[in-house]
Design a protein that fits this description.
single chain; alpha+beta; 25% helix
């Protein structure tokens, strides 16, 4: 507070006038200076969660099987939606006589 009064005295001596009305306008923010919050028109719903293992979270959750994936849909809580990851292909090597026989031709 004392620093403010010393600043006012210095400003008065430099300008030669009264600085207090200017400082009062600066220190008191008006309502128009603030940004008014915007209310969203659409309710936000979270998307589908992608998980390695899906499970039911409530009684209204149900399973849907499509395109090698398992989906969990929920009519009561939309945030319970889940989708399983696609299974990785295991043992997809091309097996031939050259790669499987104990005797190599070379």
């Amino acid at each position: 507070m004392q620093k403010l009064f010393s600043l006012v005295k210095v400003a008065n001596s430099l300008i030669g006038g009264n600085v207090l009305p200017i400082l009062n306008r600066i220190s008191q923010p008006s309502v128009t200076n603030f940004v008014k919050p915007v209310i969203p028109l659409v309710t936000q719903i979270s998307g589908i969660k992608i998980k390695g293992r899906v499970r039911r979270r409530c009684r209204s959750c149900y399973f849907v099987f499509r395109d090698e994936r398992v989906y969990i849909m929920c009519s009561k809580f939309p945030r319970h939606k889940q989708m399983s990851m696609k299974p990785k292909p295991h043992n997809t090597w091309i097996l031939t006589q050259a790669s499987q026989s104990p005797v190599r031709p070379w």
